[in-house]
Amino acid sequence: MPAPSEHTRLSLEQRLGDHARTAWPQLTRLHVRHRGTFAYVPGQLADGEQVKLMRLRYNGTAATWGFALYLASSDTYENTVLPTGSLTGTPAQALDCACHLHLAAPNT
User: Is 55 inside any structural domain?
Assistant: First the structure.
């Protein structure tokens, strides 16, 4: 699978940032880093602490991405099933799943 285009990478960052601002106010910023087909997504908390959240894998479409949750116990990313029962989903679904596990409840 080829790496996502610059447009797709920027779109992913924009969509994740917009979703984080509305659903996860604990995060002051997301720092999305791209490497090949992967996007690594740590979040920054208000106190400046960075929390590794997840890794997304580009599957050829900007709409759905593969999801891997960061595991602090082993300092690795593990492919993870989303609450929908799928290994792929929207970036917002992946962010919600990761934040539910790594942060307090969302602002609802």
Answer: yes
Number of domains in the chain: 1
Q: For 44, phi and psi rounded to 5 degrees? A: -110, 130
Give residue-wise pLDDT tens across range 20-30: 999 999 999 99
Cβ neighbours, 10 Å, residue 16: 23
* Residue at 24 is within a domain: yes
Average pLDDT, the chain: 93
DSSP 67-78: EEEEETTTTEEE
Range of the domain at 40: 6-102
Alpha-carbon distance 49 to 67, whole Å?
A: 23
Say how many C-beta atoms besides its own lie within 10 A of residue 25's C-beta: 11
